[in-house]
Structure formats: C-alpha cells, structure tokens
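Fold these two proteins, one after the other.
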Amino acid sequence: MGGMASETNGLNDLNLVARPAALAEIETRTRAMRFDMASEPRTGALLRALAATKPGGRLLELGTGTGVATAWILAGMDAGSSLASVDSDPHHQQVARDCLANDGRLTLVLEDALGFLRRQPAASYDFVFADAIPGKYEGLEECLKVVKPGGVYVVDDMAPLSKWPRAHVERVALLVNQLAGDNRFAIAPLDWATGVIVAARR
C-alpha cells in the first residue's frame, strides 16, 4: 500500500518526493480500514508530474479508492484545472471526501465508472488515470475515446505478481497488447512502481 515503505537508493529515494499535505491522514485511515489497493508513492509522484503538464486541464480518475492517488494528482494541478474522481464504493470514497472535498478543483462522483464514461463526450479530458476495472479491463474503448489529442491515459499495476491468478495475467497481457497496437496513442511502458503505462493521444 502507498506510503508504507521507503527506499533510499538513488532515483528510487522516496525522500526526494515531497508528499501532498493531505496524504498522512488519508493513509492512516486507509490502513485502519485495511484497504490494500491504494497507489504507492512512486505512482503518485508520476501522476503528480503528469498532472502538472496539463495547466487549465480537465482531469479524470477512475477508481477514487480512499483518495491516495487523488491527493497526488491534485498536488500537480494548477488552480485552473479540475479533477473528476469516480468510484462506486461510498465507504472507501468517504475518506477522500472527508480529506479532500474542501479543494474546489475536485468533484467526487459516486457512480459506476463505465456508466460515467458512456455519458462523456469524445475528447473531453486532458488526463485519465484508470485505476478501476471499468476503463481498464472493461470499457477500454469508452475510456480511450474521452482522451483529447495531446492528452494522456495512465494505468498502473501492470507488473506481474506471483499471486495473480492466470485469468488476471491474461487480461493484463491483453490490455498491454491493445494499447501497444492502438495507433492513436504513443505508449511508454515503465518498469516503475507497480508497472505503469503512459499512453499519449496523438
């Protein structure tokens, strides 16, 4: 889970990465509810940097969870940007609501992500972090179509783990191949954090 470990070897030194102010409280509550699917700090640092490349942008997160990645994305955004973060679990999203809802740039949406995506116009977001099954393993095309030219689509948890069931290994491989074969996007598969793919819309 994000923020639980520290590394001090060169570019993996997490002491180089300033943490968002709200993160400590979010992580404390995340641990208390034993939610183990939060993004780790290296993923957060990358999300923050990518968010910073979209001044005045419209950003989208699919899978708020408890708001760990949400806090990192907000930390990279400028005052003119907005972030919609979607989750279908009110219990987990309540942590983000309690810790981050005072940020006027953030809209927390309690809804199935696939239903949300289907209502969005094409090319309507500058940045999409898909951290839920919808938009990643289901409804990929619905998600990719909302990315503007010059925008980015980001997924993590791409590095295989020994505990993964075969079915999940196969669906990760399918997603990677789909993104690699999509000529609308230029992709960068990164051996970073839990394995990240950044796909930029041409």
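Now the second one:
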Amino acid sequence: MKFLKTSFRFFKSLYLHERFFYVLFGVALLFLISFWVPMIYPYLWLVVFVFALLVFSEIIALYKKDRFSAQRNLPEKFSNSDANPVRLFFENQYPFKIHLEVIDELPVQFQKRDFFHQQEIPQKTNATFEYSLRPVERGEYFFGKVNCYVSTRLKLVKRRFQFADRQMVKVFPSFVQMKKYDFLSIDNRISQQGLKKIRRIGHTMEFEQIKDYVVGDDVRTLNWKATAKHGNLMVNQFQDEKAQPVYSLIDTGRVMKMPFEGLKLLDYAINSSLAFSNIALKKNDKVGMLAFSNKIDQFLSANGKKSHLNQILNALYKIDTRFLDSDFGLLHAQVKRQISQRSLLLLYTNFEHISSLQRQLPYLRAVAKKHMLVVIFFENTELKKLAENKSESIPEIYEQTIASQFSYDKKMMVNELQKHGIQTILTEPKNLTINTINKYLEIKKRGMF
C-alpha cells in the first residue's frame, strides 16, 4: 500500500517538458525518413537510447531528494483599489542550476487564470519574485497553492512542488490612500488655495483668557470679579472649540452600486471617508460615521482618540451596498436622535436626476438647520465623455443630447442645494478623496461650523 501511494505521488508530480515532445517528434520524423534512407536506421536506436538515458538521469537528479522549497509572503491586509505586493521566496538546495516555472493560484475575485512566471536559480541559492495585485472589492481573499515546476538544464522533464495551500488575506478600505494624503493635515498647506489664516473669536464654552474690555466686546462676557479686582472692565474671551464633531454619512443604497473603473461608488466613498477621518483626527477634531440605506447599518459616535481610526476602519470594512432605495427620513431621525451637538456632516450619496434630489430635499434641509451639511455626489464620467464626443449620425446626436441633459441636471442639483444653504461637492469618483479633504479644510479654516 505504501508503495502504491509513493508511486501515485511520483507520477502525479512528474511532468514532461515541451522540449521532450520536440525531441520525440524529431526522432519520429527521422524514423520516417529511414524508410527512404535505411542506412540511418541503426543509429536512430542509439539516439533513442541516449534520449531515454537523459530523461531517466534528469528524473533521478530531481527526485533523489526534496531539495527545493518555496514560500508565499502576504501582507497582513490588502488595501482596496491599490497595488498590493505579494512576494514569493524560493530556495534551491540542488547541486545544479534549475529552471523554475511558477503558477500561483490567485483568489477567485481577480478572475486571473494566466499567472505564469519563470526564472533560473543557481545551485545552493535563494531567490525572490514580487508581483502586485489590485483588488476592487472588500472582503476575504483566499489564495490556493504555489505550484512550482522544477527542471534541470536539459528541460526534458519537470517535477512539481506545491506549497502554501489556502492562505487568506482581508481587503480593507484604502489605508494606502489614507497615508498618501497625510500631508494635507499640515496647517500651512491650505494657504496654497489663497485662503487667509483667520483667528476667529467665538462664543463657545472653551475659555481662552481674561482681557480688558474694548468697545465692541460682548457685554454679556463681562467678568465682574476680575473687574472688581483690577478696577477696569474685564471680559472673558472664548475661542472656537478645537475638537469639533465631524461625521461621514454613507449611503449604502442601490445608487451606490454603480461601478467606475472597476470600483463601486460605495468603495470610493469608503476610501474617501477613511482618508478624511484620518485628516480630521490630525486636525484635533472628533470623527464618527454612519452608514444607512433602508435601515441604519453602522453608527459610531464622534471621538477624538487616535485609536478611534481603527474602529472606523473595521466598521467601514463591513459595509456593503443594498439593492434598495435609501430612507433619508430615517437618516434625519437618526441624526436628530444621536447627534445632539452641532457637527459637520459629510453625506456621500448620488443623484442621477433632479427629481430624485427633490424627493429627499426636505430631509436634507431639516438636517442642515442644525448641522453643517455637505452633500457629496458624483459626476457620471461615462456620460460626460459621451457628451463631449463629436457626433456624426442622428443616433449619436440623440445620445449626446441625453448625456448633456444629465450633465446639466447635475449642475442644477448643485444650484438647488446651495440655494437652501447646503454645501455641495460634485466630483468625479477618482477625485473624490482630494476634493472632500480640501472642502473640509476650507470649511474649517473659514470657521463655518
């Protein structure tokens, strides 16, 4: 029984190289020619004998001992929509140079079945090979085996080795993009946009100092104890709170299922939300998030701790789109119930037609009465390209007219929201993160909330 198992493993791992069939075809062709040239016939059997000897010698050299190993090194987690490195390590302990062919079994989400790599590794040497993968969906990705086919310089047969079976890595929202935009948290960066650094004197409960009264100061802030002590009118001076609450409101309804460049609008919003939260924490604000569709999927109260970013990352990882219409009335009720302090709310959603905005406008206006609301929605880049193309036929003119109408509707939505005092960002999906962060920095610098 043991012999049968060993034989089965041997034949299962033994493969014939392309060169083997080329030589075999050449020998068969010579045997055919020997019908017309009989004098070469005896020598052909010598060629067959030498060929068989070389094949068996290569098999013995490859199977004498297990002298090859490989290992797949995966990062702890993948970053969604970014290039993530995967490293393969090879160790050749054979006393001769080997030719290596590698087929790595990639996760099914990539739908890539043509992975192939080959290289030569000198004797008693280690080697590495690195490639990158770009996932476009969050979740668990399972790698299969690393199939390595080893042959000698003869390249007549090859032996298959299999390593690293069933490895799993989780794909999280784009933490690479988050680190990329870290520099935007530097205070002097905003001056590049022509915004003045304004020190605003506020009337919140964060005390700054006691100072002499001057004409124009609010008499309600008079400090009578300090006035009696100094003999002059003294007032309390307050400053705007540094740690202000900022929330990312993410629509997970069917409108966010639309893909652009392989990535869903929801994933663009999630990546942007993570990068934005990181900037807000570095600016000493408190960040939170809320995901909703026909129900509340996730809610995290605003918190200013640096460790809170990990909670946001894990919450964003679990979010997925639903094939249902989002309930903005439910969003308004949740915000009214859970967010009592005036906050900056960044709402990631999408409207393709002005009528869909008008249905939700009463709820948006109700939210904007108490909070600083920024509605973020997307330009349809495909329709934009279609509208800019040159038309050469009546059907193309018709399509271009419809595309132009949709683009015009987007601009009308911006005007409608701004008319009711609601800040807006209309952006292409690929520019979402940078535009959102810039809007936040602008609002914060101007002290608008």
